[in-house]
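Hi all, a correction to my earlier message: I attached the wrong file for Sulfide dehydrogenase. Here's the right sequence:
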Amino acid sequence: MNDLIIMKTPRIEKKPSSLRYYQDGPPVRVEPKEWKLCLSLIRCEKSFYLTLDDIKSIPKRVENRRMVCVCNWSIRRTWGGIYLKDLFNYIGLIRDDYAGLFLKQISIGTPEKGKYDSTIRIDDAISRNTMLIYEVDGEPLPLEQGYPLRLIDFGLYGYKGVKGLGELQISTEFELGYWEQCAGYALEGKVKPKKYFIVDLKTHHFIEAAEVVDF
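and the right structure:
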């Protein structure tokens, strides 16, 4: 089976378009046999390279969870992938405490826009079962939504999780990412308590904060 995914002309649909995230659009194509995720431990200058098959060999998690966008909408979907902590366990990075450590995510990028990056707190991400996702609603991620791999911390706005992941860097610096520098978004990226449009329910609902689990 050929896993090569080629970008098709997007259909017009009612739910918000993920193309906003990419500005000029995602990569035109990604060759899964050539793609690798680089995981760098900067302080010890050590790197791991994982193929998509490596990542899929880690026990899969399938969870129905709600993500929230800073553009005032939210959607609940069924995500397939692995927990961030499962990835760390896979490479032998097992700690009782991740305080003071941060995860910088860097995208594959495009020739037009270059690479996109975002940094999150590892301890919070682990506690919230942050996922590295390669499926949505039982199907491989389309390019628009982050093929072959994307990160979502469900307690943070969507801009804090990079689509089309190419590299993860573990460091002691909480760096400003693309959207913090470009649009002035908050570095922490925590979901703010206010009313959002709930795409899957076609209604507005007040979200308190953090991960939404009650609807």
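Sorry for the mix-up. The chain has one domain: 41-207.
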